[in-house]
């Protein structure tokens, strides 16, 4: 009889998921780092000329944190969205459903592995950006870097897990990536401050949870953000993201518990 949490099973699932993406780390860790670095090169060359500054720092320093956490979120989604989907397509979904793991343990193991991949990608991108001329990654508020980075990775990992339950083929997951995740990431203030937008688009940006992740993560490095004029606004954003992830986690758990598209 397994009493309480099945620690061995949870750890085994986590290690399985981590080893899965590490076997192809060129594709899952290093390639995203190179792609994100190319974003930095292109946008700093195109928009960062003549000593342009944003929020009192060089454009390269401004855009670097946003690119780091954007890469983290996108890879967290990619990792968790593959788990159930590959099993359903290959007919091996039973290997995840049959072990003595509760739905909470199943969700925790997959999400934790996705967050691990996000952290590895973020660290790799950050180290690469330190070598880029004009980029400073000195942290003004380390807690914000850790919290918003974690909340962003967890949020996208949960979204990816829900996508893998719903999707029936890789085209479905790719559609969510291309038409939901990518637009929300690129239109969240990664390359600009929303004060430059019209009031309508500012309101739309503030309804985008990705905006709070990217701006809060940037606040951890620069000590400034476009969330609000005070640090209290950033704190409220941190609390709001935590609550949002709790709700998203509850919805994901309910979806797994229902067995929709998993047991039928």
Automatic annotation (TrEMBL):
Occurrences of domain ABC transmembrane type-2 (ranges): 23-256
Which Gene Ontology molecular function entries are recorded, alphabetically?
A: ABC-type transporter activity
Q: Where in the cell is it found?
A: Cell inner membrane; Membrane
Give the signal peptide range. none
**Transmembrane parts of this sequence:** 29-47, 54-73, 106-132, 144-167, 173-194, 203-221, 233-256
Q: Which family does it belong to?
A: Belongs to the ABC-2 integral membrane protein family.
Q: In its UniProt entry, what is this protein called?
A: Transport permease protein
The species is Tsuneonella dongtanensis
Give the classification, highest ranks. Answer: Bacteria, Pseudomonadati, Pseudomonadota, Alphaproteobacteria, Sphingomonadales
- Whichever gene encodes this chain, its name is yadH_1
């Amino acid at each position: 009889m397994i009493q309480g949490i099945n620690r061995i099973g949870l750890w085994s699932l986590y290690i399985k998921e981590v080893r899965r993406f590490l076997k192809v780390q060129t594709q899952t860790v290093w390639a995203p780092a190179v792609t994100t670095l190319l974003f930095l090169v292109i946008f700093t060359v195109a928009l960062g000329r003549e000593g342009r500054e944003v929020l009192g720092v060089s454009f390269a320093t401004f855009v670097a944190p946003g690119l780091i956490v954007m890469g983290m979120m996108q890879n967290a989604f990619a990792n968790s969205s593959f788990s159930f989907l590959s099993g359903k397509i290959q007919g091996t979904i039973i290997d995840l459903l049959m072990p003595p793991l509760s739905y909470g343990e199943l969700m925790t193991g997959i999400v934790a592995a996705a967050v691990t991949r996000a952290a590895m990608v973020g660290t790799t991108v950050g180290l690469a950006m330190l070598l880029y001329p004009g980029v400073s990654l000195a942290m003004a508020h380390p807690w914000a870097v850790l919290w918003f980075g974690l909340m962003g990775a967890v949020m996208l990992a949960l979204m990816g897990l829900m996508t893998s339950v719903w999707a029936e083929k890789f085209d479905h997951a790719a559609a969510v990536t291309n038409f939901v995740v990518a637009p929300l990431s690129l239109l969240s203030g990664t390359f600009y401050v929303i004060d430059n937008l019209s009031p309508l688009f500012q309101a739309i940006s503030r309804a985008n949870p990705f905006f709070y992740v990217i701006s809060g993560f940037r606040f951890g490095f620069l000590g400034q953000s476009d969330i609000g004029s005070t640090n209290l606004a950033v704190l409220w954003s941190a609390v709001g993201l935590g609550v949002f992830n709790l709700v998203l986690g509850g919805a994901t758990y309910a979806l797994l518990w229902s067995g929709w598209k998993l047991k039928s």
